[in-house]
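Quick entry between incubations.
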Amino acid sequence: MRKRRSSNRFTGTKLGILAGSLAATGVISGALAWPAWIQEQEGTEREATVQSPGTSVSTPSPPIAGNSSSSSSSSSSQRPNSSHTRVPAARSRGS
Amino acid sequence: MLLAAIVLSFLVTTIASSAALSSHIFWYLGRAAGLVAYWLLFSSVALGLVITSRAFRGLLGRPWVFEIHKFLSLVVLGFMAFHIFIMLPDQFIGFRLDELLLPFRSHYRPVALTLGGLTFYGSILLTASFYVRRFIGHRSWRALHYLSFLLYVLAILHALLTGSDSGNSLVQLSYFVSGLVVLLLLAERILNPQPPSLRPLASDTAAAR
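Done. Structure below.
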């Protein structure tokens, strides 16, 4: 009887560890993805605004590297999900 | 656990692709799984040291600690496998399977990735040793277990040299605190060794079942 109870406790702890680890992975992934997702949404909205009728698109400014969070009009031409959300070294992959 | 992690990696890949989610999700999942794998590895190593520590004698039931230590090593392996295989569908970094599994084949930080690969293979060996303990004998099993400290150091080096989040102050703090805890437990173990009669025996494993 005692052995069975102890075994049950182990199972509960094991399930807790597994569930906690999976939850932590989900939460951390979400936290990492969130800023990029927000930026992606903003980029999509800006692109839609720029392309809407009656909106001038005559002089798009080039994107400024590393300054994508800027609220200036230059960021509107930057593609969503740009590589600046990555580790800089990852971008260094060449050809 | 290892197989489950590989299956889960491919399952997530399929779901994410069919749901037309951003391919970047694999990158974030990989980074998160790497961090969780490190913290699980730390927990496993720390619990392993606690089992034979005098300071913790009587505080934690030894069969319970041993069983959770053993289970943690299995979960670590699963998260390591997930951390590796979930990187495959990420199109930005573009890893191939051989780059992830073979040493010095990666186009991206080959030395740091090799350290991670060695940690993974060492963990497979160490986890398997739990299940072949009766065949290899307690002394060999114990000798093999010293490998865990090397694997822990390799994991920290891999995290620091490769990890995209190593610049994050919270992550750095967690590495520092966990490393310090392992060092202190190791120092306690060396300076205050247990008499042979109190060392964990095969009966501990049997009691934990």
